[in-house]
Each structure stands twice: as C-alpha cells, then as structure tokens.
Amino acid sequence: MVDTVIQAPLARRGLLFILSSPSGAGKSTIARMLLEQDGHIALSVSVTTRPPRPGEVDGQHYHFIDESEFHRLVEENALLEWAKVFGHYYGTPKAQVKQGLREGQDFLFDIDWQGTQQLYQRAEGDVVRVFILPPSLEELHRRLRSRNTDSEEVIAGRMARAQDEISHWDGYDFVVINDNVDNCFEKVRQILNSERMRRARQTGLIDYVRDLMNAPAP
Ligand code: ADP
Ligand code: 5GP
Q1: pTM of whole model > 0.85?
Q2: C-alpha distances in angstroms, 157 versus 41, 63, 83?
Q3: Which of 7, 10, 91, 182 lies at a CB distance of 3.0 to 4.6 Å from 82, suitable for a disulfide?
Q4: Is 21 annotated for ligand binding?
Q5: Alpha-carbon distance 14 to 211, whole Å?
Q6: 23: CA distance to ligand 1 center in Å?
Q7: Which residues belong to any copy of the Guanylate kinase-like domain (predicted)?
C-alpha cells in the first residue's frame, strides 16, 4: 500500500497583484474572473470621488466618497497610493492590506500606472505588476462602446489617453495581450500561481526544510 501523506499548505506571505491596462482593454473582466475562481485573492477596494456607474455597489466595487473626505484621507496618510485619473481621485486604503499580507492574504489591485509606481516604491518585494494590452486600438474603441457605461464624450477622452497609458508598459513585470478572454485569464492565473511559489514568499519553508533535513532516513 502506498503511504499518502497530506501536507497542510505552508505558511506564505501574501502578495500585491496589480492589474493595469488602458481603460477598456479588459482588466476588470480579468479581475472579476480571478476573484470568482481563486479563493485566495481579495480585491483591494479603492476609494474614489467618481460617481458610481449603474450596477456598481458602494463598498464592493469602490468606496464612493467626496473630495473633502478624499483630501482628509491623504492628509491623514491613510492611503498607500493615490492618483487623479480622468478628473477624479482614486486611492488605496492602507488598513486592509497591511494586516492581510502577513496572514498570507493576496490582494488584487485594479489601479493605473501612477498608483503602480507608488505601490512598487513602498512595497517592492510584495508587488507583482501585470499590464494588459488590447489587440488593437480599433478593438479597444469597440470594447469601450460595447461596455455601454460611458457617453461618447467620455469614451473619446479614454481613447485619447489610451496611447499615453500604453507607453507605461515597461513599468510592469508581465505584459499580456487580451485578444481572447479565456486565454488571457489563463495566462494571468499562471503568473499569480508562479509568483506564489517564490521562495521568499513561502515563509513556512525554513521549518519545513529543517524538519526534512533532521528527520531520520526511512
Ligand atoms: P477595463 O476594466 O480595462 O476598462 P473591461 O473589463 O470593462 O475593461 O472591458 C471592456 C469591455 O470589453 C467589456 O464590455 C468587456 O466585456 C469586453 N471585453 C473584455 N475582454 C474582451 C475580449 N478579450 N474580447 C472581447 N471583449 C472583451
Ligand atoms: P474606472 O473609473 O474605469 O473604474 O477606473 C479608471 C482608472 O482608475 C483605471 O485605470 C483604474 O485602474 C484606475 N484606478 C482605480 N482605482 C485606483 C486606485 O485606487 N489608485 C489608482 N492609482 N488608480 C486607480
């Protein structure tokens, strides 16, 4: 009979998994799939001064706050990073992330390149940066319109910024082209799982390997 030993998962430090892309390339879609299919990653819910879109839930997609509250959070140093995007403020509250990381919780960030730079400067070793590119600008435009959430004027503004956002591709560790959603998701999931296996993140390895080395040979 084969002796099967079921090993409990080793203790691990969590990671900060950043997905960025020009607006409309599909990062929210990929983020949603990750959150649904991976039980070990939680969304870092940002604060924003932008008004909710139809279907967006306060506290779930964003914490929707006004400008004076946002500036108060900045002054209190309560945000890990923040930026002004498309005329609205966005930021990452510190509180949820710090404790979770130590407990092995991974966090997903849907933030832009400015926030990515700030987060990297603050927590380089914990950060994994993934940039999602559209297959073409025509397809990006089509997706922005298909989302049915923004006026033509807002879409034109997002398109005008797209090439500027794309120019920040080299500030990321991984770049994935979202031509097909399922293929793109699979690649992003592989990146997440590989990064979880990094030696430095597997904090339980030291004891585990010590036990292996000290155990009597069978
Ligand atoms: P972002 O979060 O980057 O602004 P979304 O995830 O909201 O973008 O995607 C924009 C639109 O494009 C949505 O309607 C989404 O369903 C669609 N979409 C996302 N990925 C693909 C894809 N690979 N092929 C076709 N449509 C896509
Ligand atoms: P949207 O309004 O479409 O939800 O987001 C607009 C842009 O703001 C996206 O590029 C998104 O990644 C970015 N964003 C959302 N939350 C944050 C945040 O907390 N910090 C930063 N820096 N960018 C954010």
Answers
A1: yes
A2: 32, 24, 17
A3: 91
A4: yes
A5: 24
A6: 9
A7: 14-193
